[in-house]
Amino acid sequence: MKHDTIPVTGYRLRRFESVAYYRPGPVSPTSGGVFAPNPEPSTQNHEGFFRSLRDGDWCKLIFLTSIGLLWVSLSGPAAATDSEAETAYAIGVGYHDLDEWQAAIESYTQAIAFDPTHVKAYHNRGIARAQSGDGEGALADFTQAIELAPTFAKAYVNRAKVWDQQEAFAQAIADLTKALSLEPANAETYATRCAVRRHQGNLYQAIEDCTCALALNPYLEEAYRQRAHIRQQSADLEGAFADYSRQIELRYDPAQAYVDRGDVRQQQQDLTGAVADYTNAIELDPNLAQAYLRRADAHRVSGNVPEALTDYTQAIEGDPSKPQAYWQRAWVHLKRGNPRQAITDYTDGLKRWQKPATRELASIYHNRALAHQRIADRVQAIADYTQAIVLDPTRAETYANRASLQWQTGNLEEAIADYTRLIALDHSDASAYFARAWLRLNRGDWQDSIADCTQGLLLRPGDSQAYQTRSEAKWRSGDRQGSFSDLEQAIALAESKIKPDLQYRLAQRRALDQDSSR
């Protein structure tokens, strides 16, 4: 592993730059914080030591160790402390190469004990601590390295990356700005500051930094990727398309670049072009599950359902840990009339969800409830709608669907409560007023039923059924003339096939009214 490309879990640009295999002396004011190479035999022997360790060449390992110990013994008492510090440091570098962070930290710490001014040991220990998740320890080490060598640009850059991980964006930008004042031609530092500003939400200046990076190095693929994402986020689809295309030309992770450009084409409604890009990505990397998932989405939107199902299945086989492919395939099954398969996929996706509950999950529970409704499993459907409401209490459709099921299962009070919440979310929903009016009529709340019908008719005045409901509520409350008037209005608005029934009811009510008045 190269020490200037040590990856950190998380964002791609949050890698740390090491100064391994460099001389421990003072920083050259003309070098921009880069130490001069060390030609000493001790460094060469340690490098060979760890190469032998990796390769399993134990004879060579013993030989190199012996030579190193002999060199230390010949160095004399005056040189013992310096050589011991360098030996411990070199061992730390070897562990660093093997990603053995705790062992590297221990070796760097030993080097610092021998030489408290060992800038490289502080710096590389900061990297190892950052890799092992000790952000505070990493910040302390990078700060110490900066105090010992104030012109050491890499230390500022690496400290900025830790600040970025801790979302201390102002501090990160300050460190990167300082690093650029020391190394104004460092394109990678501009790209790093671009990433931090993107995390901060300062998209305009982030684009400026990426553009500066590319002016210094037109082949810096990471800057194209960053700027492409920012442009896509800012709805500059043409600019994003151009940057992703440049990544493809440079052969920088071209499979992923094709996927990203395909996403842009989907946003541009170019489904054919999007499918072509996803297909290119799959040809370059047949195991790229994301490409299958995106191509499946494009097929689904364009109506190619069989192809969509095939790609969703391929995405699941390529990466069974991602829930989105299960849920998208479930949606296709639901639309095709296969609710049981949809339930299975929704459930499998939920088992694989590792993040905190969000509104995205509310949609999944809502859709699984729809699937349960299709197979007449009202109890489970109500349970899923309830979970969806817990996750997103602002979705009116979920209240409407649960209210309907509560009504069907005879839970009138719960149904009324759901329609009441629905009306609170959407005062213009006439159907909710009419449904609640009918439930209140059956519960014996005549005046509340009349009020709901009246409000609903203000929103939708041509509803024959609402006039029938209000007519019934008025009849039961003793308002005979109001009931006749509403029933006449219902007859006028009703379909021809039901008019005779309504007319017969009106005639009966009039007769009853005459009998009671005698």
Give a verbal description of the structure.
The chain is mainly alpha-helical and 518 residues long. Helix content is 75%, strand content 0%. It contains 27 helices and no strands. Helix 5 runs parallel beside helix 7 and helix 21 (396-408) runs antiparallel to helix 22.
Strand and helix layout:
Blueprint: H1 41-55, H2 58-74, H3 80-97, H4 101-114, H5 119-131, H6 135-148, H7 153-165, H8 169-182, H9 187-200, H10 203-216, H11 221-233, H12 237-250, H13 254-267, H14 271-284, H15 289-301, H16 305-318, H17 323-335, H18 339-351, H19 359-374, H20 378-391, H21 396-408, H22 412-425, H23 430-443, H24 446-459, H25 464-477, H26 480-493, H27 499-517
Helix pairs in contact: 1-2, 1-3, 3-4, 3-5, 4-5, 5-6, 5-7, 6-7, 7-8, 8-9, 9-10, 9-11, 10-11, 11-12, 12-13, 13-14, 13-15, 14-15, 15-16, 16-17, 17-18, 18-19, 19-20, 20-21, 21-22, 22-23, 23-24, 23-25, 24-25, 25-26, 26-27
What pattern of helices and strands is seen along the backbone? HHHHHHHHHHHHHHHHHHHHHHHHHHH
Percent strand equals: under 5%
Coarse shape: elongated
Name the structural class. Answer: mainly alpha
- Measured as a percent range, the helix fraction is over 70%
SS summary, helix count: 27
The low-confidence parts are 1-15, 19-80
Query: How many DSSP E strands?
Result: 0
Alpha-carbon Rg, integer: 35 Å
